[in-house]
Design goal:
two-stranded antiparallel sheet, binds zinc ion, mainly alpha, 2 domains, 3 helices, elongated
Length: about 80
């Protein structure tokens, strides 16, 4: 069974992507374009980095010096993990 990635779901759900893909002759749709979109997608969505704190509220990685002793994010006050 094929596992769908977030990127696959993004492609299926995004009207912008559908319109974009429609503008191509399917035979000419080149992998390079798809790869560029994937790179842009990956860059647009912050992901937890191993070894760093992650704040669900801010959706970003938090350096250790911005985490309180009780493991809260200094900036927003939410619990980090
Ligand atoms: Zn935060």
């Amino acid at each position: 069974m094929e596992t769908k990635t977030d990127f696959d779901k993004f492609l299926e759900e995004s009207q912008e992507v559908k319109d974009y893909l429609k503008s191509f002759d399917k035979k000419r749709l080149d992998l390079h374009e798809v790869n560029l979109m994937r790179i842009a997608f990956d860059a647009a969505i912050p992901k937890p980095i191993h070894g760093m704190w992650w704040c669900d509220h801010c959706k970003k990685n938090v350096p250790g010096d911005q985490v309180t002793f009780q493991e809260f994010h200094e900036e927003c006050g939410y619990k980090v993990r």
